[in-house]
Specification:
- The chain is of the alpha+beta class.
- Helices cover 57% and strands 16% of the residues.
- It folds into 2 domains: 2-57 and 283-416, no CATH class; 87-269, no CATH class.
- The protein has 14 helices and 11 strands.
- The longest helix is centred in the C-terminal third of the chain and has 44 residues, at 275-318.
- The radius of gyration is 32 Å and the shape is elongated.
- The chain starts with a helix and ends with a helix.
- Keywords: Cell membrane, Membrane, Transmembrane, Transmembrane helix.
- Residues 295-409 form the ABC3 transporter permease C-terminal domain.
- Pfam families: FtsX, MacB_PCD.
- It is found in: Cell membrane.
Length: 417
């Protein structure tokens, strides 16, 4: 064991010495490994960060949640021209499902409307996401209220002028003051603040309600009108925990088909989107992105491997005399083999560490520019980068190491002179 530690120590010395004595040559040889590791880890970090952000935006909803709309959240065989003819889900259909779906824990009607500005005296909160939802949405998303309360079913049905503010919106408007009972202006109307959502933290895919405001859906329906295609209506359903999912979806689909008068041969003119299916689609998509990125980055690593192999062949050539002396003094073939293998691995790992350092710098810069989006260089990705570097060094160094270990000591010494 001690002999291998000694070989490792000497190999590290030779690798560092090669860097010091032939800086330009060595750096050019390591550039391929550095670029390859940078490419691979940058792709992995970017895809992991994107996946975490998207799933974080969905984490407030249970995986069993179902969203019924005229749009599909994933791939579909229905042609686009036909999907464009699908009608929006209606408030009446929401009421129908609320009454008739026995195994639903909660059913909510949601309108997606543009962001607005909310005013209080001389202060304005701009670009506020307006969540126009019925009262049941509070149970579906399990919203946490920091102050006050969420509006109830009666207020939702009659479209009462009440509003529940996200944490950041309340801070911008009231700056630490008491928001409950105050009147703010939205859509040119007065709304009474009845609650404030607990701070959730940043999220750029809708995962945070800090910059949102909740208002009764029927009030927004009166403002936009029931037939507006710009509001993107949805019926959000949370099944009971012990329900059979396939049976529940089949019953839900049949209820809507009957209500819409669809014949047996007609296709569904709506989509029942399951959140679990969406997360599976995200996993599949990010997996494909990772694979494509790894294939492209692999070409950079191939070039890097050739660079390491080249510098090792040069190193064997320069140290032929030294190899001959070592073997004449009793050094075994495996000692010479491991010496050059360790050197190749150490050189490759140095190139990989430089690549990891560049990814870390790039992630800091990217995060500073994107604000809420966080690029994450995980320990697992760092381990992958280091391991791949070592493997590339091992593969690139094996042929030069074997050729060095098989040198005849007499010929090696004579060649040196």
């Amino acid at each position: 064991m001690l002999i291998y530690l000694r070989v490792l120590k000497e190999s590290f010395y030779f690798a560092v010495n090669a860097l010091r004595n032939n800086k330009l040559r060595t750096m050019l040889s390591l550039l391929g490994v550095t670029i390859g590791i940078f490419s691979i880890i940058a792709v992995l970090a970017a895809v992991d960060s994107l996946e975490k952000e998207i799933k974080g935006s969905l984490s407030s909803l249970d995986n069993s949640t179902i969203i019924v709309t005229r749009f599909s959240f994933g791939p579909t065989e229905v042609p686009q021209w036909k999907r464009q003819q699908f009608p929006d889900v209606t408030y009446e259909e929401y009421e129908l499902l609320s009454r008739n779906i026995a195994d639903a824990e909660a059913v909510s009607y949601v309108l997606n409307v543009p962001s607005e500005s909310i005013k209080y005296t001389d202060k304005t909160a701009s670009n506020v996401g307006i969540a126009a939802v019925s009262a049941e949405y509070y149970d579906i998303e399990a919203l946490q209220i920091a102050k006050g309360r969420f509006y109830n079913q009666a207020e939702s049905v009659r479209g009462a002028p009440v509003i529940v503010l996200g944490h950041d919106v309340a801070e911008n408007l009231f700056q630490g003051g008491e928001p409950l009972g105050k009147e703010v202006r939205l859509y040119g109307r007065k709304f009474t603040v009845i609650g404030v959502i607990e701070k959730m933290g940043a999220g750029i895919f809708g995962g945070s309600h800090d910059s949102n405001a909740f208002v009764p859906v029927n009030l927004v329906r009166r403002i936009y009108g029931s037939s507006s295609r710009a509001t993107f209506p949805q019926i959000v359903i949370k099944p009971e925990s012990d329900v059979d999912n396939a049976e529940f979806v089949a019953m839900l689909t049949q209820q809507l088909r009957n209500y819409r008068g669809l014949k047996r041969e007609d296709i569904d003119n709506f989509f029942v989107n399951q959140l679990q299916g969406l997360t599976d689609f995200i996993d599949n998509m990010t997996g494909q992105m990772n694979m494509i990125g790894l294939i492209i980055s692999g070409f950079s690593l191939l070039v890097g491997g050739f660079g390491i192999a080249n510098i090792m062949f040069v190193s064997v050539k320069e140290r032929t005399n030294l190899i001959g002396i070592q073997k004449s003094l009793g050094a075994k073939n495996r000692f010479i083999l491991f010496q050059f293998l360790f050197e190749a691995v150490i050189l490759a790992v140095i190139g990989g560490l430089i690549g990891l350092f560049l990814v870390w710098i790039a992630s800091l810069i990217a995060t500073s520019f994107t604000g809420d989006f966080q690029f994450i260089l995980s320990p697992w990705n760092m381990f992958i980068g280091t391991a791949v570097s070592a493997v590339i060094g091992l593969i690139a160094g094996i042929v030069p190491a074997i050729s060095a270990s098989k040198l005849d000591p007499v010929e090696a010494i004579r060649t040196g002179y």
